[in-house]
Amino acid sequence: MNEAALTPSFDEPEAPKATRRSRSTLLKRLADVVCLPSSRINAFERSMTADLLVEMLRDANIGEREKVARRLAMLNEMPGVLVRLLLRDELPVARALLVDSEKLSDADLISCLYQATTEHRRLIAQRRGVSEVVADALIDMGEAAVIETLLRNELVKLSHQGVENIVAATRDAQHLIPLLLRRAELRPSHAYVMFWWADSDARRTILQRFAVSREILQDAVGDVFALASAEGWQDPLSRKALQFIERRQRNRAAIAKSPFDSLDEAVAAGEGGFTREIAEEISYLSGLKPMTGAKIFTDPGGEPLAILCKATGLPRACIRQLWRGLRRQEVDRTGATDANLERVLTVYDAIAVDRAQTVLRYWNWSLTSALTPALLKAIRDGDEGAVDEYSAPQRAAMLALSRDFGR
């Protein structure tokens, strides 16, 4: 009998069940050889056996492939050719490795996630101790179900860039926001941006957790204000930082140029109906740029109005004046205060002045000082792929304002 007669054709039909015993036994024995310790088999012999096993697995049925995968899952070091084949296999086969094998490398997992299915990626996201590089790759795929699995995995490590990418994803997957708010990796720079599209419950959590006091900063740099003043505030970098830290929120210099004698008067003028001019004057008098003011006044939830009033020392009644000027519903059908207005008033009552200033100044910093020509172009063009070119406030502005530029 010649050798050709012993070589099966890949076009041949599946072997009858009664004759599969030799195949099953051979697959098991080859897997056993691959699993032998280094003291009994050298690297070349293991590699040769793995190559032969791969050739058989390509045409084995799913049950046979799953058995081999389970056998190999316990290996500390699996031949790469086997890993690549089995991780990209159907879910029952890949699951044996993705769930049970602790020794898969980041390279193996990344190769799998880019070439397999969403369910494969969810299994990867469930693994213990998923590294930052693997988590970043999973997040980059943009699948809300996979990101949700990652956020629920307390053992996963999220990078700063990964968190930023999830923040961006929450615009269209808001159910991820509560999960992200529980993560220790979330920073104020992320939370303050996400605030703009978060619901009322998430906004309350953000204010409770991230609206921090600047008292330590104020104590640390208290003497620097006099130094900067003596220099005529000529250094733009220190001026910007000190403006964020200082206790005073209202812009006293703006009063001299304003048609109003005070911020309170400007708010009262707006009660009869907001105009662009009044909105800009309130912004200037509050120490804000018009872009920040516009974002606050057009926010559908209304909580930023409470932050504005508390930070600038405006009385509680000014919230109602602003509410009325913006033509928002004040009472419900029963004559009671509208639920949305009541929620905003509660925010005003709950937050301290210094903490409200922290939020307001971060918004003003991130939404205005960051608006360089390059950033504006990125917002309009949707060029979030160039995010590494921008500073933290620039990235904040890109996320928060992209919808305002018709994206």
Question: What is the C-alpha radius of gyration, as a whole number of Å?
Answer: 31 Å
Overall domain count: 2
State the distance separating the first and last CA atoms: 71 Å
pLDDT average, as an integer?
Answer: 83
Dominant shape: elongated
Assign a percent range to the helix content.
Answer: 55-70%
Judged by helices, strands and strand pairing, the structural class is mainly alpha
Order of helices and strands: HHHHHHHHHHHHHHHHHHHHHHHHHH
Stretches where pLDDT is under 50 for at least 5 consecutive residues are 1-13
Number of helices: 26
Q: What summary fits the major beta sheet?
A: none
**Number of distinct beta strands:** 0
Q: What fraction strand?
A: under 5%
Structure description:
By secondary structure, the chain is mainly alpha-helical. The chain folds into 2 domains: 29-198, no CATH class; 218-384 and 395-399, no CATH class. It contains 26 helices and no strands. Helix 1 runs parallel beside helix 3 (62-72). The radius of gyration is 31 Å and the shape is elongated. Residues 1-13 have low confidence and may be disordered.
